[in-house]
Amino acid sequence: MKRKIKGVSKLKNQKRSMILIFLLIIVALSGCISSSVKTDGIVEDGLNINSISIGLGGSEEDAGITVVTYNFNLRNRTNTSIILKTVEPILSKEIQERLIDRGIKLDINEKVDGNNSEELTGTFKLDTRGLDKEGIINLNINVKEFNIAFEQVIGINEP
Description:
Layout (H helix, E strand, L loop, with lengths): L1 H41 L4 E12 L6 E12 L5 E8 L3 H5 L8 E7 L3 E12 L5 H6 L7 E6 L8
């Protein structure tokens, strides 16, 4: 009889373990589903950036200057056209203090139709005198956000 009791309790432990694993899987899957819904809701329409690439290079004029080139794809996810006026990268205070020229705003003045993309490229120069390659890398030169000015024609919704 003792063997049957041990076998029954072992079977109960296995059942409990299986139920626990099943519940954990359900919780994990529901978390993934709800977070993806939230993310999609944020960029349902409007402007968004699909990808950004950044390149660093030396200046031909001066060895103490680093040229930063950024390239990104701006997507107009609305159904209406916009006139893209200006684009300016948002830089950290440390990077702003090293700018050679403060005029880093791009004047675009181009139409971007609804549900279309525009590839944009810009550059700015940083004073990196006294820094070696590792010092420049440690500046953490990232361009991830932009101030974007645009015009859009809107009208009244008539029934």
